[in-house]
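Suppose you are handed only these lines of text.
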Amino acid sequence: MIKYNSEEKLKVVLPENLTEAILKLKKALNAVILVHYYQEPEIQDIADFIGDSLQLSQEAARTNADVIVFAGVHFMAETAKILNPGKLVLLPDLNAGCSLAEGCPAALLQKLKDKHPDHILLSYINCSAEVKAISDIIVTSSNAEKIVKSLPKEQKIIFAPDKNLGNYVMKKTGKEMIIWQGACIVHETFSEKKILTLKLEHPDAKLIAHPECEGKILEKADYIGSTSGLLDFVINNSSNEFIVATEPGIINQMKKKAPGKIFIEAPPEAGCKCNECPYMKLNTLEKLYLCMRDKKPEITMEEEIRKRALKPIQRMLEMSK
Ligand code: 13P
Ligand code: SF4
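From them, the structure of the protein bound to 1,3-dihydroxyacetonephosphate can be written out as follows.
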């Protein structure tokens, strides 16, 4: 089968059975394939480990593999590289970014920090290595509340870059924070009106939401949590029907782990597919195969940045035990 790799404009020959070829390469490279829940089902199916941002960084910290193949977005693979400077970390498509990371340049965040020298900087893991390098502690959607609660009461905090997660954590902890006004393009897309209509049509359905959603959606949610939190909730909750306000990639695992239950995608404002993360969806099985075959694209960074970025990640991993 002949296919074209659009990036390199090269004719590339792909094996008939991509999954089989990927598994062979995995063995030859002594690689581990880490996959986020928002990836396509066919990518989820070949994962050695599938998880949320915290679980993926924990797995990256403990792996013995020589090569880490990251099927997720850039900041996730970058975190794996920060933790494993000696390993080759591959990302199938280097353009798989994140609107939160892109909306928070380190130089501007440094200016905000300079204005508040008595504050510490808590950064959501959805940020660049440069932002991590100027941060005191990294948090994810599954540990942000716990980490803020564990800090001394008088500790002043700047929270970046997600305003929705920041506001949610402020509400849960009662802790005032200065919040960077960033947002996720996917989680800001859900329509409150359409969700309310769905709730009327499905009165027994539970609305479950990721904390990157806007406050008006979170206020109506029966459960709020990280992707793994949402997955655990649908497995353990006695309800049979769920309206899922996050990227629909997670529904594949929900169907597998809670068979027979009904999952309804929370609808976006416009009649579009804006609830799908365009960055996550840049990764394909073909690109996964090619990155393993060619050992590129790989994640690289300046050692000075890496060393500084490592400290707040290690603090998070310690505080999450
Ligand atoms: P989780 O840490 O909950 O998997 O979230 C990652 C993410 O990018 C959500 O949009
Ligand atoms: Fe970033 Fe949003 Fe995509 Fe998550 S869903 S990777 S926060 S753009």
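What can we learn from it? Residues 73, 98-100, 126, 184-187, 212, 247, 277, 279-280 surround iron/sulfur cluster (ligand 2) (CB under 6 Å). Residues 38 and 292 are 20 Å apart (CA to CA).
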